[in-house]
Amino acid sequence: MTEHLPQSDRRSEPIELVVPSPTSAPTPVPLYCRRCRRGVNIRFNNLGIVVQYLHAAEQGGQRSDHDPEPIPITEIPDPIIECDFCSAPDAAWIYRCANQFSEHRRVTTQVIGVSDYQSRHRAARVRRTDTEHAFTQAWGEQWSACGACADFIEVRDLYGLIRRVIDALPAKYTRGKHLMRTRGELHDTYSEVFDTLTPGRGRIAPGYPLGIWPDAEAIS
Ligand SMILES: [Zn+2]
Ligand SMILES: [Zn+2]
Question: In angstroms, rounded to a whole number, what is the distance separating the alpha carbons of residues 202 and 77?
Fold first, then answer.
């Protein structure tokens, strides 16, 4: 016999996630906000349809006074390119890797045993947790990096990079039990970046928001 915890007693539906394939990603060119000239992230629903644009800074918990107005970065004369890793204001390099999607789920129901609940109340063990798809985050194929983060990337120092980014994050992501989860998420995301990095890197310069690449196929 089971009992639902009252605060999370919501009906859940079976979810089948359809992650958009990298080839059908909406645009290979990063989107930036026309108003504040800063990076915009994309979130999809489980049908692969864009449901939300979010300033990259809002991803880290910051508030914005306006909704993003996303346009390709190449259409913004003077974009503010922050480091996609540590959020430092002046990114110096562009790295390319496979587009990456991370699925975020929300808890709909937690099921616990009644006898466990009676004896342990809130400490009762969770027998089953139902979740539903909340959104899928697209990370894009291009990652901007500041000089210091790029140094870690060049020598493929995954843990050095994670340490640096953790130090730069707001305390609420690294306090107590959040630290383990944050570190795990960064490890997953950055491992994928490292595993799929294409050779070389582009140097960001005025008028070249996609970087100047050594093989002379400068794009902008
Ligand atoms: Zn904006
Ligand atoms: Zn950085």
Answer: 18
Among the bound ligands, the one closest to the CA of 79: 1
Q: Which residues pair with 138 in a beta bridge?
A: 42, 101
Interface confidence, given as ipTM, is: 0.94
The span from the CA of 116 to the CA of 48, in Å, is 40
Task: Give the contacts of 171 (CB within 8 A, at least 6 positions apart).
Answer: none
Question: Phi-psi category of 16—alpha, beta or left, where left has phi over 0 and alpha has psi -120 to 50?
Answer: beta
Domain ranges of the chain: 2-212
Ligand number nearest CA of 39 is 1
CA distances from 192 to 30, 102, 125, 195, 197 (A): 19, 11, 33, 5, 8
Cβ(37)–Cβ(7) below 8 Å: no
Q: Please, are residues 55 and 64 in contact by the beta-carbon 8 Å criterion?
A: yes
Instruction: Give me 94's structure tokens.
Output: 């562009």
Ion ligand 1: residues, Cβ under 5 Å: 33, 35-36, 68
Rounded CA gap, 182 and 172, in Å? 10
**Rg of the chain's alpha carbons, rounded to an integer?**
20
Distance, CA of 55 to CA of 87 (rounded, Å): 12
Q: Give residue-wise pLDDT tens across range 80-108.
A: 999 999 999 889 999 998 887 777 777 77
Q: Tens of pLDDT along 124-146?
A: 777 777 777 777 777 778 899 99
Alpha helices for 8-105 (secondary structure H): 56-59
Q: Please give all residues whose CB falls under 5 A of ion ligand 2, grouped by chain where several chains appear.
A: 83, 85-86, 88, 146, 149
